[in-house]
C-alpha cells in the first residue's frame, strides 16, 4: 500500500504527492478525535501521540509540518491509517446501496489509530455529551496535567499518561467540566494504574470478550467499549451505535431497531469491516438525516 505513495521531504516536512481520497475535515471532525483544530479550510493542527502535527491540502498533495520522513513512516502513517487499502474496502462496502451513498458522500474519510488510554478516557467523557463539550473537557485535562510541546512560538499540551492523571480527584475532574463522569474517571484511572489492559488480548479474543473486558471499568458500556476499540485501531469488527446510527439503521431494520438487533446485523452483514462501515454511515447520517 505504501509503495503507491510518492513522498517529498525535508528536515521538518513531508509531502505526499497525488494522494487519493484523504479528506481532512471528514477525518478530523467526525467525532473520533478531539485534539485537532481547524486553522482554515483544509488546514489543521493537532496534538497526538505526544507530538504536534500541522497538515494542509495543497492541490492533490498533503503537506505535513513538524515531522521528518523517519518519524512520519513510524508514527504518522499508522496513526492516519495510510497503510490501509481504503479503495479495496470501499469497493466491498459499496455493494450495499446505502453504504454506496455514504462512501460517495465522504470518500476521503479515514479512521485514526489513536493512543489507547487517550481514546479510553475521551470516550468515557463522550457519554451523553457533544463534540464541542468533550473537546473543552479534554483540553482542560491536558492543560492541567499535560506536558508542554512548543511549535511555531506556541505552547501546546500533550495528553497526560494514566499515571499522571492518578493524582487528580473527583473535584478536579468536576472543575474541568466532566460532571457525573468524574467519578467514572477516578475509578477507572486507579484501576488501570493497578492493572493495565492487555491490548493484544483485546485484538485476539472474541468481540464479546473484548467488550466484557472494557465493561469491567466504570463508565464503559457497549457503545463506549466499541468506540474505544475502533478509534484506537484495536479492532474493526465493532459497530458503535448512537442516535445517528439508530436513525440510519432504521432503513435496514425497520423503525426504532434495538441496539442488539443493530449489532447482530452489523456483525453478520458488514463483518470485519463493520467499524469502517459505521464511520461512513455515521458521517452520512449527521449531514443528511
Examine the coordinates and then state which fold CATH places here, giving the name of the CATH topology of the largest domain: Endonuclease III, domain 1
Can you summarize the main beta sheet? 6 strands, antiparallel
Q: State the shape.
A: globular
Helix content: 40-55%
CATH superfamily of the largest domain: Hypothetical protein, domain 2
Distance between the termini: 34 Å
Strand content: 5-15%
| Class by alpha and beta content | alpha+beta
Radius of gyration: 19 Å
Question: What's the β-strand tally?
Answer: 8
Residue-averaged pLDDT, rounded?
Answer: 96
Report on this structure.
- With 289 residues, the chain is of the alpha+beta class.
- The protein folds into 3 domains: 2-84, TATA-Binding Protein, CATH 3.30.310; 85-104 and 234-289, Helix-hairpin-Helix base-excision DNA repair enzymes (C-terminal) (Endonuclease Iii, domain 2, Orthogonal Bundle); 116-231, Endonuclease III, domain 1, CATH 1.10.340.
- It is 50% helix and 14% strand.
- It is built from 15 helices and 8 strands.
- It has helices spanning 24-28, 69-79, 86-93, 97-105, 116-125, 131-145, 162-165, 170-176, 181-194, 199-204, 207-215, 222-231, 243-253, 259-269, 274-288; strands spanning 6-9, 13-17, 36-40, 43-48, 51-58, 61-65, 148-151, 154-157.
- The protein has a 6-stranded antiparallel beta sheet. The chain has a two-stranded antiparallel ribbon with strand order 7-8.
- β4 and β5 (51-58) form a beta hairpin.
- α4 crosses α15 (274-288) and α13 (243-253) crosses α15 (274-288).
- The longest helix has 15 residues, at 131-145.
Amino acid at each position: 500500500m505504501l509503495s503507491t505513495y510518492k513522498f517529498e521531504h525535508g528536515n521538518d516536512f513531508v509531502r505526499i504527492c497525488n494522494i487519493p481520497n484523504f479528506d481532512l475535515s471528514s477525518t478530523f471532525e467526525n467525532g473520533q478525535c478531539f485534539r485537532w483544530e481547524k486553522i482554515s479550510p483544509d488546514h489543521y493542527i493537532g496534538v497526538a501521540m505526544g507530538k504536534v502535527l500541522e497538515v494542509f491540502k495543497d492541490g492533490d498533495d498533503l503537506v505535513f509540518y513538524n515531522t521528518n520522513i523517519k518519524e512520519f513512516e513510524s508514527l504518522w502513517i499508522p496513526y492516519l491509517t495510510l497503510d490501509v487499502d481504503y479503495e479495496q474496502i470501499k469497493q466491498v462496502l459499496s455493494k450495499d446501496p446505502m453504504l454506496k451513498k455514504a462512501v460517495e458522500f465522504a470518500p476521503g474519510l479515514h479512521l485514526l489509530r489513536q493512543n489507547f488510554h487517550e481514546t479510553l478516557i475521551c470516550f468515557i467523557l463522550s457519554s451523553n455529551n457533544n463534540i464541542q463539550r468533550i473537546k473543552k473537557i479534554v483540553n482542560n485535562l491536558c492543560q492541567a496535567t499535560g506536558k508542554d510541546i512548543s511549535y511555531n512560538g506556541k505552547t501546546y499540551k500533550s495528553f497526560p499518561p494514566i499515571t499522571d492523571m492518578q493524582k487528580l480527584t473527583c473535584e478536579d475532574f468536576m472543575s474541568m467540566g466532566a460532571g457525573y463522569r468524574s467519578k467514572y474517571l477516578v475509578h477507572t484511572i486507579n484501576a488501570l494504574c493497578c492493572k493495565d489492559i492487555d491490548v493484544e488480548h483485546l485484538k485476539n479474543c472474541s468481540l464479546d470478550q473484548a467488550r466484557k473486558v472494557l465493561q469491567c471499568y466504570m463508565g464503559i458500556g457497549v457503545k463506549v467499549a466499541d468506540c474505544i476499540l475502533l478509534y484506537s485501531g484495536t479492532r474493526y469488527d465493532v459497530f458503535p451505535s448512537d442516535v445517528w446510527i439508530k436513525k440510519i439503521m432504521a432503513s435496514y431494520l425497520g423503525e426504532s431497531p434495538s441496539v442488539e438487533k443493530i449489532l447482530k446485523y452489523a456483525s453478520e452483514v458488514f463483518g470485519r469491516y463493520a467499524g469502517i462501515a459505521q464511520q461512513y454511515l455515521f458521517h452520512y447520517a449527521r449531514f443528511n438525516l
